[in-house]
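Quick start: what a row looks like.
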Amino acid sequence: MSKQHQILEAAIRLFVERGLQGSSMALVAKKAEVATGSVYNYFEGKEHLINECFLYVKQNEVEFLLEHYDPEASFEARFKGVYTSTIRFMLDHCSYFRFLHLYAFSPVITQETRDKLYPVFETFINLYKDAYEAGVIGSPDAPEQHLSIYGGISYLMHYYYVNQVEITDEKIESMVNFAWAALSNSKQVTEG
């Protein structure tokens, strides 16, 4: 792992455990086992660091989703696959999930940082657009559709985490089926 990645991973854990105010650059350096000056070689300050952490986590999430994405599958299978992979990512990368849950809508994450995500998520934005054009989903607003589904899954996963509820394959399937039922158009067209 590169020094920059060590710093990002340490910062993510600290931001989750101690919050933004409780995580100094010196503490990040100590947790990453690097010199404080090394942190400043990569990041101008804490605000820059947390924005880079946000991009790093979202890019890792997209890479994970793309590894499990089949562009040739039916719309239903693609959406269910994305939701299942999203849940698996949350389970496999708990510190990332908790970081996103805490900071995704924080004002410390700049609009410039958020704008960098659009090209990263292009495959999935197009999935929503194509599904709408095919009459499979009922709304053309991909970001709102996604946030409604993702937010519900994220909140439920956080509830399970806090209450130490075992997340079984049956629970995952139930969440995914619920998400698909909420998204799909009741007058859904049949795909070939």
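That is the whole record. The CA atoms of residues 97 and 168 lie 18 Å apart. The radius of gyration is 18 Å.
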